[in-house]
Amino acid sequence: MFLSVVIPVYNSERTIAPLTERLQTWLTGLAFEIILVNDGSADRSESVCQQLANRYNNVTAISLRRNFGEFKAVLCGLNQTTGQYVAIIDDDFQNPPEAILTLVEAAEDGQYDVVYSRYAQKKHHWFRNIGSRLVNILTTYSIGKPKDLYLSSFKVIRREVVDEICRYKGPYPYIDGLIFRTTTTVGSVEVPHNARAEGRSGYTVRKLVSLFINVFIGYSLWPIRMFTVLGAALASLGVFGGLLLVIGWLTNRIDFGGWIVVTWAIVTSLGVQLLFLGVLGEYLGKLFMAHSGLPPYVIKYKGLRKGQVVEQ
């Protein structure tokens, strides 16, 4: 199999069939498969995906037991792929499916492990654009992303990187974080970006906050280390201030007011506490990163080729 296309599906009963049909047209001549992962949709998306799996030999339909979120649905799809390259594309037609060939070509020509799409003009809602910008700033410092790289959901990943991503068994997958844990051989290609064909985006304040917390805490020890550095700085400031107080007391050059001693005691004790909490948090953080074992998703059924269904 040369190419696998993973599509997380959520409330897309009107777009998922045209998208699949368009992929069948544009990818003709390639050995490819399409993995549809219905993420607990409230409409008829599950039924439509099943019909598409019955219609096409190269379509696999998977339905999750409930709505787990886009990243978990994508991880589920990645675990089912067999292609040398894996493309991830949304179900709303904002990314033209024919651009997959452009991303694959860039990956082959540039020997990239991952090729992200970038847009001259994004057609997302202004709220989502602001959220994406904030997430990109955060990921630059938390996962080591290049500053000029936009982390789009539309991308192509080489098989070896996909296999490493699929090793993650924790409850909070973040695909881009897993990518940058695996490789830094990453490129980007400009592709068109269209207005949403149907419905409205599920990008909400709650999901944005959840993503921020996931990236900030789940994929980096940077927050712990920031407090450790702050604690060390305050503790050092307290020690330095204590030395100045002792020298001033010995030389009678400092008038010991109560506020001076209280301020010194607060700064020193706060610094020492933050330092010890940071060291303790470092241990706990490493344990969390190493031993988080909750399943990221639960499969309701797996529709195989021509409608074969395996109940889970």
From TrEMBL:
One of its GO terms (cellular component) is plasma membrane. It comes from the Bacteria. Residues 4-165 form the Glycosyltransferase 2-like domain. InterPro entries: Glyco_trans_2-like (IPR001173), Glycosyltransferase_2 (IPR050256), Nucleotide-diphossugar_trans (IPR029044). The chain crosses the membrane at residues 229-250, 256-280. One of its GO terms (biological process) is lipopolysaccharide biosynthetic process. CDD domains: DPM1_like_bac (cd04187). This is Glycosyl transferase family 2.
